[in-house]
Write a structure and sequence with these properties.
Layout lengths: L29 H10 L5 H21 L9 E3 L6 H9 L19 H9 L9 E3 L6 E3 L2 E2 L11 H11 L4 E6 L1 H6 L2 E2 L13 H17 L4 E5 L12 H18 L18 E6 L8 H6 L5 E5 L17 E7 L9 H10 L7 E6 L35 H17 L5 H16 L6 H8 L11 H12 L16 H11 L5 H22 L16 H4 L3 E4 L6 E4 L2 E3 L3 E7 L6 H8 L7 E5 L1 H6 L2 E2 L5 H21 L4 E5 L14 H16 L7 E6 L8 H6 L4 E4 L8 H7 L5 E4 L12 H14 L18 H19 L3
Parallel strand pairs: 1-5, 4-6, 5-7, 7-8, 8-9, 9-10, 10-11, 15-17, 16-18, 18-19, 19-20, 20-21
Antiparallel strand pairs: 2-3, 12-15, 13-14
Length: 804
């Protein structure tokens, strides 16, 4: 069926405000626990479905209690068992060829077992590649698409989840990654022909989405949300012109050719082929003309990010028939909003000519913790983690829903209707600005006194010679990235120590015992450069935040990183300095146990910022230099203790790269500078390593070189060494450790598989530069996986070494 001008002039969509998504792991990590129990075989798929259904219903009711309307689609249905991009793969049945046997023969759908297999791999079948979701610390699975990838409306789960919520009394709004962004983020499968791009399958994917919309309309869904963040970045390998043409084509089919169901026509199948469509563009400002492009379609509402994006200028033709959803509450950070200032922004949108205005978060709240009220603020209580004064400065997901609801009331009824709330938010912002510790003059003075010499080391050739003489390593030296499995015994000891049930001395003894075990294991495996395994660290960022001034940490502020993996990002609220050494004791003890070189392990300044909720009252570069100076002091103490190798991990270097190319040079200037500030105080014979992961590195090869590390390890196993030829082509001439063991999957690679990957590396780059290591740390793996995998890694290194 084809119609024209299908969208009626709407009343305000979501007049009480809305959000673009909500944390889905559970406020007590219920989904994580249920999924991991299923993976372990302790429960079955029915048990998992029941646990997930309970969580979805509780979330919907919670959002209604917080002020969202239960009846008009204001409550987003943004649940996922693992990843929202993987959900679209399942929706379409678009799995790689190696997993086709997992599809149901009749309808092409994936059962839960198959869904998780695509995410985690099996046997010799590698899982989908994982990389960062725009500029967040969330990781998505990269679809693999070819000319022959099956594409259809295969999975009706999203329809069932709507019906489930409706039965519980809440009319939700199904949320999906939009068809254009899904394909723009996909990679061409290995079997794809030359010149193929996943967007070549746009018509097929849009046809499947159209079938989905018809199915949603048939059960009475009033609104559907399609996320198109591809429209805020110019860093994809797709020209903006092609993206825009794809958007115009996709939404001509989905919004114009499918007639919108209305209250009057919902029962008339011929007149109601789709719900109303909300298209969102989070994580930045829209491309030039992209708002006009969306306004020219027959979508019913458009959500724009007004935290990272600016208010568009002038009238936008086509908006008069649509609701403009103003994303003014920051979905990506935890600071309480100045509601009066946010209301000013919303009201400034009236000049764009939209048919109606409402308010929302700038992004999904997936990226922030659930609830400030879950934290303990009583300084006399055991387990306290947050200073009481922080309460008024913070807004987690639940508080942000409240902020949206307040702004919606103000927009409808005037500022005087919420005067007390506006005054309270302004007072909180003012209190934060003047609090002790936010500005520390000694920290500011030290940063102001820095010179170019503080950011530079001597020539690499001189350093390499001095390091070779000191370390005496074989070709293709083997090592790990730093962490070893965190066993239940380690976690129990740390928990008991945190609660005061284990003395400092007993805790230290337990950690030293674990370090000794890890050192013995590494020596038995034959690794060349050892690590202490980091048993004392709860998280690679939180551990440092707990010991640096200017940070606070949470007890319950869990945020999903990928799959069932959750982290508790620290809160960087003030000027940063190091009151005492942090890692020296552990590294020195490790070195006393072995004759082999030991790496000191630190987290770099950019990653500490990227994986924290960072103050928004000064430039990020200034904050990065403060962290860099604190780490510089720590490295100096490690060097003084006799540690000859120091690794400063920067897995998030690519993550914070601005989504617009025009902003990237300035970011790379200060991010690379903060790393060099941290590492440039050492002697030539001290070898500096860094590590990067979860990233598409092509855009930052120059920055990787600019870090001036002596050795850089990078994630490379899932992409089969894609980064190595790129580094060779760029003239990279220092040590490189491309990961040969994918630690994000439970599968154990064979010696032959690791040997093949390593052979690819030494073929593309000078073998004298190559190190052999896993993709990332081993913290989340089990020893039953780690020990054979590392044995295979060492065997592969010896095999390839013998051919040099």
């Amino acid at each position: 069926m084809s119609t024209t001008s299908t969208s009626p002039t709407p009343a305000t969509a979501f007049p009480g405000g809305t959000i673009l998504g909500y944390p889905r792991i559970g406020r007590r990590r219920e989904l994580k626990k249920a999924v991991e129990s299923f993976w372990a075989g302790r429960t079955d798929a029915v048990d998992l479905e029941v646990a997930a259904g309970t969580l979805r219903r509780e979330t919907a009711r919670r959002l209604v209690d917080l002020g969202l309307n239960p009846d008009d689609g204001s409550v987003p249905g943004s649940f996922s068992y693992y990843d929202q991009v993987l959900d679209v793969v399942a929706l379409l049945g678009a799995v790689p060829e190696r997993f086709r046997d997992l599809l149901d023969d009749e309808d092409g759908s994936l059962e839960l077992d198959g869904y998780f297999t695509v995410a985690r791999g099996r046997g010799e079948d590698a899982p989908l590649e994982m990389t960062k979701w725009f500029d967040t610390n969330y990781h998505y699975l990269v679809p693999e698409i070819s000319e022959t990838t099956p594409v259809s409306f295969a999975d009706h789960r999203i329809v069932r989840e709507y019906a489930e919520a409706k039965e519980a009394g809440v009319t939700t709004r199904p949320v999906l990654v939009g068809p254009v962004t899904f394909l723009a983020l996909s990679k061409a499968a290995d079997e794809a022909g030359d010149g193929f791009h996943p967007l070549d399958r746009l018509d097929d994917v849009v046809a499947a989405y159209a079938d989905l919309l018809r199915a949603l309309a048939a059960v009475g869904v009033p609104w559907v949300q399609l996320d198109e963040p591809a429209l805020v970045t110019d860093s994809l390998d797709v020209p903006a012109e092609r993206l825009h043409a794809a958007i115009a084509s996709a939404y001509r089919t989905l919004a114009t050719d499918l007639a919108r169901a209305t209250d009057d026509t919902a029962s008339d199948d011929a007149a109601g082929e789709r719900p109303a469509i909300l298209v969102t563009a989070p994580f930045g400002g829209l491309h030039e003309d992209a708002l006009a492009l969306l306004a020219a379609t027959d979508v019913d509402a458009i959500a724009i990010d007004l935290v990272k994006g600016a208010v568009p200028a002038g009238l936008v033709p086509g908006l008069e028939g649509k609701t403009l959803v103003a994303g003014v509450i920051d979905g990506h950070n935890v600071w309480r909003a100045d509601l009066a200032a946010k209301l000013d922004v919303v009201e400034s949108l009236r000049g764009l000519g939209a048919g109606a205005l409402t308010v929302s978060t700038s992004t999904s709240l997936l990226h922030v913790p659930h609830d400030v009220e879950d934290e303990v603020f009583d300084v006399t209580a055991a387990g306290t983690t947050l200073d009481p004064r922080l309460r008024d400065w913070l807004a987690f997901a639940d508080q942000k829903v409240g902020e949206v609801a307040t702004l919606a009331v103000a927009l409808a009824d005037g500022r005087e209707s919420v005067a007390d709330a506006l005054d309270a938010s302004s007072a909180a912002v003012a209190s934060r600005a003047t609090a002790a510790g936010v500005v520390v003059p000694a920290v500011r003075d030290r940063a102001a006194a820095l010179t170019d010499a503080d950011f530079a080391r001597g020539p690499y050739a001189e350093r390499a010679a001095a390091q070779a003489a000191r370390l005496d390593l074989p070709p293709l030296p083997t090592t790990t990235i730093g962490s070893f499995p965190q066993t239940p015994e380690i976690r129990k000891a740390r928990a008991a120590w945190t609660k005061g049930e284990l003395s400092d001395a007993d805790y230290s003894a337990a950690m030293r015992e674990e370090i000794g075990r890890v050192v013995t294991l590494q020596e038995e495996l034959g690794l060349d450069v050892l690590v202490h395994g980091e048993p004392e660290r709860n998280d690679m960022v939180q551990y440092f935040a707990e010991q640096l001034d200017g940070f606070a940490v949470t007890a319950s502020g869990w945020v999903q990183s990928y799959g069932s993996r959750c982290v508790r990002p620290p809160i960087l609220w003030g000027d940063v300095q190091r009151p005492a050494p942090i890692t020296v004791e552990w590294s020195a003890y490790t070195a006393s146990l072995t004759e082999k070189p030991v790496k000191g392990m630190l987290t770099g300044p950019v990653t500490i910022l990227a994986w924290s909720f960072v103050r928004d009252d000064q430039p990020l570069g200034d904050t990065a230099n403060q962290v860099g100076l604190a780490l510089r002091d720590e490295i100096a103490d490690l060097e003084a203790a006799g540690i000859g190798i120091v690794q400063v991990d920067e897995p998030a270097l690519r993550e914070l790269l601005p989504l617009r190319r025009a902003d990237q040079d300035e970011y790379l200037r200060w991010s690379v500078g903060s790393f060099r500030l941290a590492t440039s105080g050492v002697a030539p014979a001290t070898q500096v390593h860094t590590h990067l992961c979860y990233s598409e590195f092509g855009e930052v090869i120059g920055a990787i070189d600019g870090l001036d590390a002596d050795v850089t390890s990078v994630e490379a196993a899932r992409s089969r060494m894609e980064i190595v030829p790129e580094l060779a082509d760029a003239g990279y001439s220092r040590g490189i450790g491309p990961g040969v063991y994918d630690i994000h999957s439970p599968r154990v690679p064979s010696s032959d598989e690791v040997t093949e990957l390593l052979a690819l590396a030494v073929k593309a780059i000078d073998p004298a530069l190559v190190w052999v290591n896993p993709d990332c740390g081993l913290k989340t793996r089990r020893y039953a996986e780690v020990e054979p995998a590392l044995a295979h890694l060492v065997a592969a290194a010896r095999e390839v070494r013998s051919t040099l």
